[in-house]
Amino acid sequence: MSDGCPNVKYPVTWELDSILPHPETSEFAALFGDYKRRLMTLAEESDRLPAISSAADHTQGWSKFLSEYAIVEKLANDLASFAGCHAAADAANKRFQQLEGELSALDPLRSKIATNVEFAVKEAKVNSLDEMLATNRELGELRFFFDERRRNAAFRLPKAQEQLANDLAVDSIHAWGRLYDRLSGELKIRVMERGEVIEKSPGQVMFDSPQRAVRENNFFAADKAWESIQDNCADAINHIAGFRLTKYRHLGLKSHLDAPLRANRMRQETLDAMWSAVTARKPMLLKYFAKKAELLGQKQLAWYDQSAPLPLRSQDGASDELSYDDACDTVIRTFREFSPDFGDFAEKAIRERWIEVENRAGKRQGGFCTGLPTKQQSRIFMTYTNSADSMSTLAHELGHAYHSHVLWPQPFFLQDYPMNLAETASTFAEAVLGEQQLQSAKTTTDELKLLDNMLSDAVAFMMNIHARFIFENQFHTERLAGEVPTARLSELMQQAQQEAYLNALADDGWNPRFWVSKLHFYISGLPFYNFPYTFGYLLSLGAFSLAKNSSGTAGDFPTRYRELLIATGCMTAEEAVQQTLGYDLTLPDFWNKSLDVIEQRVARFVQLADEV
After folding, report:
1. Is the pLDDT of residue 84 over 70?
2. 521 and 472 Cβ atoms separated by less than 8 Å
3. How far is Cα 529 from Cα 419, in angstroms, rounded to an integer?
4. Within its chain, how far is the Cα of 422 from the centroid?
5. For strand 355-356 and strand 377-381, is the pairing parallel, antiparallel, or unpaired?
6. Three-state DSSP class for residue 547
7. How far apart are CA 576 and CA 186, in angstroms?
8. pLDDT tens per residue, range 325-362
9. Is 106 in contact with 36 (CB distance < 8 Å)?
10. Beta 196-200 vs 355-356: how paired, if at all?
11. pLDDT score of 4
12. Rounded to whole angstroms, what are the CA distances from 263 to 266, 422, 465, 466, 525?
């Protein structure tokens, strides 16, 4: 029995009270006030940072400053994660929305500190920095941190302008992002269930029903709801991009991709190599599309058919529904078979109520994992829908949490990792789950269903994510000439989908308003929240392939995997992979190893489908 629910082995709601006092209490107000005071003091001190040199007083000054900086940043992360958790679980709660706004209003102070640190490093002579790091062991451990600050400084305006931009961002780019969160969080979709029209949150409306009529009706009901807010969303996406492009122009950046690449610590050559390999090899997925359409009794798939389950009865008569308890048992067992440490961690997170999965109204859509560095814990948010896809989402988010778990012992400033490498950990966890299930499949039908899930993921990362990238790339290009109208945004989205999907869907089967419903386009803190997913998926798949091919089993790969995760906090993407896996990501070799795995799965899927 868990959190008051009879006959439930694992909790379905998370526990937040042990992290911080409830946001509506005086204890929380006092803690928030203390954080604000410390942040303001640190921001003032950052204006007086000593020059970087090996002089004793300068070294001690930097050591003391960075120690307090780490404490304040830990608390800032705790508060942001805590507020985000409450707001996601109760999307209509005005106090939680207000708290997110209050925290966002303090971000300029955090940006001011980061700016001052980066300018101090930028202005330092290389030999002076080397001398300072050599004279202090704790500072010497942060060599990568200082190198990253120097690289980031190239993306900063002159100090006064940078601070002004950060101040204005609160009520501009970030405000538009928060507006979208409120609009989408409050949206209701009217769907028909058992002859009655009911309202659901976007996260509750599913497109994996075995009945095509249900999938189709849900799709058009959702589309109608998103249409009702599309003009407001067009304003939001235009102004988010407009803010970025204005800043990029003042920075003198040549491409709108320069900033997202810097944020992901990767090179343009790596991005080009990845997309080139995907584009060259993705036609293999057309065989999967054709065979799945045949199994579903359709000439071509529509957008809402992508997650449709195969119309196959399990040969043992078992139901396709997967309870949360069974999903947890499977994930724990599978992770433990790969690595006892990974499995033990997953069980701890599940049993100790780090995860919110309850299927109820009023929650935000989507899922996330967020870290709480002071407690060295994570919290996971999702909505579990008794499906294999939900189990994959659970594994995905636990992969994120495990990544943080591995990095907690490192110095705080070496615990941060970019999104592309974050998505490596999450999709690797999915790969572990999927591969183990595939190996243990008892029937042809079970294997076919598992392959369908895996190839659905391949479509998501090689086509859906690619469509998002193509759309956002073209949108930013057109946005340079002025605001892009609502209708044009939908045109760009459908064109991007048709290109990315190789026109494989039915003529009336596209989703032109996908730009409205996909929250990733409105995340104001991270531009191009798309290609890192494909990067992480292919990197994790290639890494797991290397482990299998080297020994036939995972072998010592769990140790190498931990080394890769640790490297994500103290190396660029290319360096982390080169030093732990031995591959150059700017070349197609590694990417093709991953794509080989997908091609083998397509062939196996077609073979089995012809046998059933």
Report:
1. yes
2. yes
3. 8
4. 7
5. parallel
6. helix
7. 41
8. 999 999 999 999 888 999 999 999 999 999 999 999 88
9. yes
10. unpaired
11. 41
12. 8, 12, 18, 19, 10
Q: Which two three-digit tokens encode residue 496?
A: 């991007």
Look up residue 403 and give its two tokens: 């990544």
- Domains of the chain (ranges; CATH) run 26-177 (1.20.140.70)
Radius of gyration for the alpha carbons in the chain, expressed in angstroms and rounded: 24
- Please state, in angstroms and as integers, the Cα–Cα distance from residue 328 to each residue in 8, 9, 16, 345, 398, following that order: 11, 9, 20, 12, 11
pLDDT of residue 319: 64
Q: Is the pLDDT of residue 6 over 60?
A: no
Q: Give how far the C-alpha of residue 326 lies from the chain's centroid of Cα atoms, to the nearest Å.
A: 25
Q: Which two tokens mark 134? A: 């050599």
pLDDT higher than 60, residue 309: yes
Query: What is 243-257 written as a DSSP string?
Result: HHHHHHHHHT-S-TT
Contact in structure between 41 and 384 (CB atoms under 8 Å): no
- CA-CA distance, 53 to 135, in Å (whole number)? 10
Q: Which two tokens stand for residue 126?
A: 């290389």
Which pLDDT does position 521 carry in this prediction?
97
Full DSSP string of 562-598: HHHHHHTTTS-HHHHHHHHT---TTSHHHHHHHHHHH
pLDDT tens for each residue of 244-300: 999 999 999 999 999 999 999 999 999 999 999 999 999 999 999 999 999 999 999
**158 burial level (CB within 10 Å; 0-12, 13-18, 19+):** exposed
Decide: 513 and 561 in contact? Cβ < 8 Å. no
Rounded CA gap, 9 and 504, in Å? 43
The pTM assigned to this predicted structure is: 0.86
Distances (CA, A) of 512 to 226, 238, 467, 508, 520: 11, 17, 11, 10, 16
Report residue 300 as tokens: 């071509």
Secondary structure (3-state) at 191: strand
Sign of the torsion formed by the C-alpha atoms of 580, 133, 128 and 69: positive
* Mean pLDDT (the chain, rounded): 92
C-alpha to C-alpha distance for 592 and 590, rounded to whole angstroms: 5
Q: Which residues touch 85 (CB under 8 Å, ≥6 apart)?
A: 14, 16, 356, 370, 379, 381
Residue 365, pLDDT score? 79
- Cβ-Cβ contacts under 8 Å for 482 (sequence gap 6 or more): none
Tell me, what's the pLDDT at 502? 97
